Amino acid sequence: MSILDLFDSGFKKRNEDHFAAIVRVAMDDGIISDEEKAFLDRLARNLDISEAKYKQILKDYQSHPINPPTSYDRRLERLYDLARMVYADKIKGENEIVLLKKIGVGLGFSPNNVGYIVDKAMNLIAEGVDLDTFTEEIRQMNR
User: Fold this and answer.
1) Which contacts (CB < 8 Å, 24+ apart) does range 39-46 have?
2) What is the pTM of this model?
3) pLDDT tens figures, 43-64
């Protein structure tokens, strides 16, 4: 096995674990709504989750560990990616924002200010900012 294979499998595993954690958040109320399912479908496609792996994770999402990033920068990167996905698909409905807030808590943001962070994130994405600007703007909020 080459080093590239190790990197690829580690990257895929992180994506699968990240996806499973989001499925777990979506299943928090016991069901996955049509809107959540549509979001999960897009997320799986963007994270390069195969159809077979997608079905397996939906069936057994609790077997995947929740590993929120320990680095604040990594949390912001994931939030940036998810907010961009929500915005790009023009699905900024109340259900998507609720799910994004749940995911924000799962990523390690405080439940007390996750609503404010998600609102700010969506506004920044609407302005078309890049990751560096996004990170700096969110960091300034917390000072």
Assistant:
1) 39/85, 39/86, 39/91, 39/96, 39/99, 42/85, 42/89, 43/19, 43/82, 43/85, 44/19, 46/81, 46/85
2) 0.68
3) 898 888 999 999 999 888 877 7
